[in-house]
Amino acid sequence: MQRFAINAQHTVDRMAAMKPHVVIFLLDCCRNYWVPARGRRGDESIKGLHHMTAPSGTLIAFACAPGKTTPDRSSDPKNGIFTKYLLKHITTSGVDIEQILRRVARDIASETNNEQQPFRVSSISEDNVYVVPPDACTDYVQNGSYKLEILMNGTKVNIKLTTKKIYESLTEKEKEELAKLKVFFMFMGDTKSRNKKQQFRSEIILHPEWNCIYDVGHIYWTGALQDGRDRGKFDYFCPIGWKRYAFYVTDNFDEKFKGWSIGYHGTKFAYGLSILLSGLAPGIKAVLGKGISISQSIIYASHPRYAEVKRIESKDERIFFLNGKYVQFVLQCRVLSKNIKVVGPESLGARGIAIDPNLSNDVMEWVVDTQDKDIMDFSVPNSTIVCTGLMIRVTDNHPGLLPESQWWYSSHICNYKRCCCVGIDLSELMKQRINGVKCNFIYE
């Protein structure tokens, strides 16, 4: 036994002793029995797997009955018949393991004309033990993106995990590392409440049909857009130089957001993990009053005080952003116009220079009513702010060299990272600016 086999019963017993949720132990059989019988009586009938007992909370499945071997007739050159059909069925979501094994047995019986009969023994008392939970699904996501879902202890959790608690438990280093993954979507809560909040949970999170580039030769217009859609009392201007990655929000988009205005919220990369589709928190420094700060101008929202400028350095980031050297993210949001309680001036001290040619500096910031909520959760149906897209600007040099960024130098800008994330030493940037170094947008 010690020379030629594994004590499967001992292995199962050790696993069960660890008190897991369940133990599922699946055993295939040999197509050919290579070990000759060497019993005291030369008993050649001792073949295959010996009968096993299932400790509490354990399911053991054999490819064939105890003491039997499988017929060598699988059409799969790599796997036996049992493994062939197990691979076919085991990834089915929302199906109990017992039902999966019944489907495997049915297909095996059909192929072998009942010659091979899988066997299982179980002491699992719970109903609906899933290998792939019903809440797990494989969706299409764009190249460079990942979708991750976590179940707590293998079950749905009915305790809301707040963004603040999770996010504040991370160290600065962890935030930086997570930000490198470019997490566009993160829901923290139980799947049951998630299903209630968003009807199309299993659909595509990124909505490629509405991705677009804003520039001459792509999507472009001058002045306020006149396309007949009701965006409330605030005009929508072309965000030149940016590419939008649209989020799926609702089927009837125009109906849902009739009268909602478009605004922008710049964010630092690490902070984005707690913001993107989880919710916005009111600003700590309430210059214009308590509420969430949004700007009608993406030019204003892209200042490094709000939108971090990040140098693209790693090989993986270069693959994702192609030939770009710097990248910025800004959230594009829809805001219910009646909840914009203050429209006020810029707060960066821009002196003697127009920030955005389409707007006065005196109407650069909105303060949106939070309805006394600590976080305005985008997924709540009555939310007054909804993030509908991620705006990305990739450039071949520092964006502070762009013509539309020249106002930065007449406003507040500094090297202190907790204030302005410039992504380069400010003196070096100023030197490049004086020397006339140019910057261009990178799209594809």
TrEMBL record:
One of its GO terms (molecular function) is cysteine-type endopeptidase activity. Gene3D superfamilies: 3.40.50.1460. Residues 14-125 form the Peptidase C14 caspase domain. One of its GO terms (biological process) is proteolysis. InterPro entries: Caspase-like_dom_sf (IPR029030), Caspase-related_regulators (IPR052039), Pept_C14_caspase (IPR011600). Pfam families: Peptidase_C14. This is Peptidase C14 caspase domain-containing protein. It comes from Rotaria magnacalcarata.
